[in-house]
From TrEMBL:
Residues 131-155 have a biased composition (Polar residues). It comes from the Eukaryota. Residues 127-155 are annotated as: Disordered. It comes from Paramecium sonneborni. This is Uncharacterized protein.
């Protein structure tokens, strides 16, 4: 059996680097449904368990799709020692629509419009200027050395605090609300968005953005690059599962998605 393309962005090694030594046993093989570990809370990040009643948007009767899941990611950040704040808002790039769920053999005949998108992500940033360290006795040293010296002298060095969200949008719709395998597949799209938000949080918090004079641009670049990667993962997900019709591949994706969620839970909650 061929493996799936998505091997994840967090591993046991990432836990070890944080000093987390856990004997993790992911009991996944007996459970084909990723929804059975939901809802899930990772710090203040909430992942909901989707049901068909959540797909309340008006279906597009002219669309060949059976169902469509929309989500968006947002985030805000601040530095632990800062008080004054201001907000910044930006619309992220949008993705093209995914391939329809039914009539897969007619894909080439479809007139796909670029305004139909799954992901409409918005950055909501609470940002502060770099904390002033001009009174540091090491101020004549280079910036990187000054930051290092300050860390050694004081445990109260400013740290970036990042809050992320992945919201399932109410415009998500379904023509058919009975098929559990289809619901599992649509949940997978939402969870890929959740993993995208969690990986973005991990990347920012493990970066040296605290040293940057332009936090806004650096974090924005990390967000855009990370979103681009997960949009590709969404495309791979549809192609490899044949839009949930390849049952074995769907199970493999379910297992990997669950594994990644549990690893992020351990990473952020310990």
């Amino acid at each position: 059996m061929k493996s799936i393309s998505f091997q994840g962005n967090i591993s046991i090694q990432d836990l070890s680097k944080k000093g987390i030594n856990l004997n993790l046993e992911f009991k996944l093989s007996d459970d084909q449904y990723v929804r059975n570990i939901l809802p899930l809370r990772i710090q203040n990040f909430e992942i909901k368990r989707l049901e068909w009643r959540d797909f309340i948007g008006k279906p597009d009767d002219q669309s060949p799709w059976i169902a469509h899941c929309y989500w968006n990611n947002s985030y805000e950040y601040y530095f632990a020692q800062d008080k004054e704040q201001f907000n910044y808002r930006e619309q992220s790039p949008l993705r093209l629509p995914r391939i329809p769920l039914q009539q897969i053999n007619q894909v080439n005949q479809l007139n796909i419009k670029t305004e139909n998108v799954r992901t409409a992500s918005v950055n909501k940033i609470k940002r502060l200027p770099t904390p002033n360290i001009s009174n540091s006795p090491q101020r004549t040293i280079s910036r990187s050395n000054s930051s290092s010296a300050l860390r050694k002298q004081s445990p109260n060095v400013p740290k970036i605090k990042l809050s992320v969200k992945c919201k399932f949008l109410e415009k998500s719709w379904a023509k058919q609300k009975k098929d559990e395998l289809l619901l599992e597949h649509e949940t997978g799209h939402y969870l890929i968005g959740c993993l995208s938000a969690l990986e973005f949080k991990k990347k920012v918090e493990s970066s040296d953005v605290i040293k940057s004079n332009n936090h806004q641009q650096q974090i924005r670049n990390i967000f855009k690059q990370n979103l681009k990667e997960y949009i590709q993962i969404e495309k791979d997900y549809d192609e490899e599962t044949n839009h949930f019709k390849d049952v074995e591949k769907q199970k493999m994706w379910n297992k990997k998605l669950k594994e990644q969620l549990l690893l992020y839970q351990c990473y952020f909650n310990h």
